[in-house]
Structures are given as C-alpha cells and as structure tokens.
DNA sequence: CGAATTAGATAGTGTTACTCTCCAATATTG
DNA sequence: CAATATTGGAGAGTAACACTATCTAATTCG
C-alpha cells in the first residue's frame, strides 16, 4: 500500500506518518520510484503500536523509540528481553535512602528477586517518597493488599507471554506492560466507585451539609 | 513564613511558587505590607500536594486546579465528594460501542454499580479499544484476575478513607487515587520482573541466540 | 501532454510548565 | 535619615514536545 492508504487504514494523518518516518519510529517503505514507496502490514501494525503507546500508554516519542528498539533487538533469552523492555519503560528519578530501604524490605519480605538497579525499584521508592511528602500514611496491611494484587496480576501477565518467538514475546510484554496499566487503573477506580457508593453514600461528614450542590 | 521560606521548605523555586499563585493553584498569603506576605503550614501542605500531583501523579496543572477545587468544595456526602474527585481525575475520550459493551458486560457480571456517565467507564473502554487495535487479546480469565485484584485494592482504599471530615476525606481520596497508582504499577512491574526471572530465564526463543550482547 | 499526487525536506505552530527580568515598595543597616 | 538589600507582583520570554503546513521536484494517471 502507499502512504495515503497507510494513513487511511491507521487513522494517522499523512504528515504525522512522515514525521514518524523521519524520527525513525517507522521503518521506511520500499521505494518503487523517486516519489513512491510501498508499505506493508508490518508498517501498519507498527504504526498502530506507536499510536497505542503514545496515546494510551502516554509514552513520549523518545521512549517509544527505545521500546521499539527493544522489540526489534531480541536478546539472549526472554528474561533478558523482558528486562530490557522494563528498563526502557520504567520512569527514572531518585528517591531518599529511607524510601529505598522501605522498598528493599518489601522485596525481601516477598522474596521478590529483581535487578539491583531496577528502574522499577526506583520508581516505587519515588512513589513512597511522594506519599511521605504529603503526609499520606500507607499502612503495612494496605501495602500487603497491593503487593498481593500486583503479584496476582503479574502471575497472569507472565503466564500469557508467548514463547514461540522473541519478537512476539517482547511485543507482548511491551503491550501488556503499557496498555494493560490503564485497564488495571480503570478497574481500580470503577471498583472504588462501586464501593464508595455502597459504603459512603450514607455517611455524613463533619462539615455542615448543604441542601443542594 | 515568607515566600522565600516557603520555597526553601518545599523545594519549589520562588518563581514557580509565584506562578502557582498567579494560576490560582495556591491561595495568596496574608499581605503584611505592599511587598510582604506571610504563608502558613496550609500553604506548605498545599504546595507539596500540587507538586506530588504534578510530578508523581503526572496531572496537568488544569487538572490539578480541578482536583483542588474538589478538595476545597466538599459536597453533600462522601460518595458525592469521591465521585467529584473521580470525575475530575478520570481521563476523557471516546471509544467504540463494542468496547463500551464489553465494559458494561463486565460491570454487570461483577455487579459493580457505577455512574452511567462515569469517566472511568469510558477510560476502560478506551483501553480495551487500544488493545483491540494492536491485536492484543485479553482473555476472560486474565481480565477476571485483573478485576479481582482491582476489587481487593479498592476494598483497602475505601476502608482507609477517614470519615471525620470532608476535607480530609477528599484529600485522602485524591491522594490515594493519584499517588497510589504509581505504587500499584511499580509493584506490578516488580512482580513481573521477579516472575520473569524465575519462569523465563531459561527459555530460549526461536531467534538464533547471540553469544554475546 | 497535462493535471493531480507523492516523497522528502524544511520551517512553522500550539501547548504546557515553567523561568527570567523588571520595578516599585519596603525592610534593614549604619 | 540615607543607603542598600530584599521582596512581591506583573509580564514577557523560553525550552521541550508533538505535530502540521509548505514547498519542490518527480512521476503517474487520464
């Protein structure tokens, strides 16, 4: 197909497709002449992946580039590959030693083995730090509930990783990591909404209630 | 305290504090003269909340403004308040009717009662849509696992909402909703990393393995 | 042949979240 | 009281990001 067709089928404007080509996010098509090039299903697939990562996964284009590089460059074994994908996906930033300690304690308690420099380890510490900063106390039991939930979800995630080809595996992991996050978060909020309606609807609060919003 | 002190204690540059004041995110201090104003603990607290929402929660400033408005304007009962906070926090956007149907089916199955126009309902449909677009199949059982995990987490969330004051409740919900999301996601990724190491490390893939990365 | 289309390059745009520069007024110091 | 430093407030400027529009030359289709 030509670019106009690629654009039509993906719903991405031609100018944007050209931009992605320039940025190296999308491999060039096969040039049939100086002013024509054809694209195939792989291009369409890749384009849809880019869009999903950007619009749903909220990744920045440089992160998308890194992710796609990991997808295209499978490593020795699946774990390494998954690790590369994770490394690229995890947010960066530093946290206090206390927060890092809290994370380490949790990991030891759970017997979770993760890479010492894992970006996710950092990410959790940063999140802890932010909670402390605003004075939000995260109880041990709540954290346990969270960790249990996370473990169950990860169990399902890992179980569904295809092992037939590295490309498929990495793409699955990347999509699963990035695009299932909104699913998990939306489900949590919906569950909160449901419970809030059932548990809190009758609860008055100290502030004088207004008769009408 | 004066602005310089507020800046020092919060770690936010003076210019940025001034910007937040201009944008109405931070209430003005009490002017003691034409060129002096004093700020109190509430300002510091609010400032830290803004920073956490922006940097950890990744909210945009206009969303932060809406969230703070909800925090400052408690409604008739806690559920309504929580609903307002949710409404502000949920991403907007439209999805296909099929995706919306899938969401409705899930909610009916789970007997989760949520507002018909719930933004979270929309958000889940959008996430489903994105998965379909990239050809990622989310099995019924995986979705069940996710929903169970979400329910457990939400249970813990709602249980810890303080009911003594509307202000506290809303602030708790907002912080809990926004700042615990990174915690949940980081935990999921760490659990994935752990399981990936245990399950996938030995798995070769079809692609010819390289002897060295 | 001639109008329309296309690839590829370059430059421009809109948004967001700051950040910088002033200036007048006030506080501080001698 | 005068000289100096600091502060609050306002407006303009900036950097990053993700497009988007324009232009040009080639080429394809009618």
Fraction of residues in helix of chain A: 55-70%
State the low-pLDDT regions of chain A, or none. 206-213
Strand proportion of chain A, as a percent range, falls in under 5%
N- to C-terminal distance of chain A = 56 Å
> SSE order of chain A, as H and E?
HHEEHHHHHHH
Average pLDDT over all residues of chain A: 85
Number of helical elements of chain A: 9
Question: What global shape of chain A is seen?
Answer: elongated
Using a beta-carbon cutoff below 8 angstroms, give the protein chain pair with the largest interface and the number of residues from each chain. Answer: A-B, 104 and 104 residues
Give Rg of chain A in angstroms: 22 Å
Description:
- Chain A is mainly alpha-helical and 213 residues long.
- The first copy, chain A, is built from 9 helices and 2 strands.
- Chain A has helices spanning 3-10, 14-22, 41-55, 61-72, 78-89, 97-110, 119-133, 140-159, 166-199, and strands at residues 30-33, 36-38.
- At the A-B interface, helix 3, helix 5, helix 7, helix 8 and helix 9 of A face helix 3, helix 5, helix 7, helix 8 and helix 9 of B.
- Chain B binds a DNA duplex (30 and 30 nucleotides) through residues 2-4, 13-16, 18-19, 21-23, 29, 31, 33-37, 54, 60-62.
Keywords:
DNA-binding; mainly alpha; two-stranded antiparallel sheet; disordered C terminus; about 210 residues; elongated; homodimer
Short description:
Two copies of one chain form a homodimer. Chain A is mostly helical.
Describe the secondary structure blueprint for this structure.
Two copies of one chain form a homodimer.
Chain A: H1 3-10, H2 14-22, E1 30-33, E2 36-38, H3 41-55, H4 61-72, H5 78-89, H6 97-110, H7 119-133, H8 140-159, H9 166-199
Antiparallel strand pairs in A: 1-2
Chain B binds a DNA duplex (30 and 30 nucleotides) through helix 2.
């Amino acid at each position: 197909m030509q670019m106009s067709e690629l654009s039509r089928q993906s719903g991405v404007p031609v100018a944007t497709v050209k931009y992605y080509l320039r940025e190296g996010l999308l491999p060039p098509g096969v040039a049939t002449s100086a002013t024509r090039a054809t694209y195939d299903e792989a291009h369409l697939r890749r384009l849809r992946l880019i869009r999903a990562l950007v619009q749903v996964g909220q990744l920045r284009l440089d992160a998308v580039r890194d992710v796609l590089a990991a997808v295209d460059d499978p490593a020795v074994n699946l774990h390494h590959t998954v690790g590369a994908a994770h490394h690229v996906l995890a947010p960066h930033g530093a946290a206090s030693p206390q927060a890092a300690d809290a994370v380490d304690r949790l990991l030891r308690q759970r017997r979770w083995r993760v890479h010492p420099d894992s970006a996710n380890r950092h990410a959790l510490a940063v999140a802890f730090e932010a909670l402390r900063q605003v004075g939000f106390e995260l109880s041990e039991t709540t954290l346990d509930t969270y960790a249990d939930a996370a473990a169950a979800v990860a169990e399902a995630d890992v179980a569904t990783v295809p092992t037939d080809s590295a490309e498929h595996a990495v793409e699955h992991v990347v999509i699963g990591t990035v695009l299932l996050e909104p699913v998990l978060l939306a489900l949590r909020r919906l569950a909160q909404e449901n419970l809030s309606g059932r548990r809190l609807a009758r609860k008055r609060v100290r502030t004088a209630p207004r008769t009408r919003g």
